[in-house]
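Thread: quick sanity check before group meeting

JM: Hey all, I'm pulling together slides for Thursday and realized we never actually wrote out the predicted structure for the chain we discussed last week. Dropping the sequence here so it's in one place. If anyone has concerns about the input, flag it before I start.
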Amino acid sequence: MDKIKGKAKEAAGKATGNDRMAAEGKTDQTKGKAKDAMQNMKGRADGVKDSLTDKRDRA
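JM (edit): ok, ran it. Output follows.
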């Protein structure tokens, strides 16, 4: 959601010549990308945990 909001804010800032709004839009996009990366890493960590747990149960 932050990425979409950021793109809209950046576009509006560029269209109106508002550099601050454009910069805020870029910041929002970066924040959204960081959230996505964290979710991705969490998912991978959960997958590793699950695979390790399965191996322990079989042994």
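AS: nice. The chain has two helices and no strands. Residues 23 and 45 are 33 Å apart (CA to CA).
JM: adding both to the slides.
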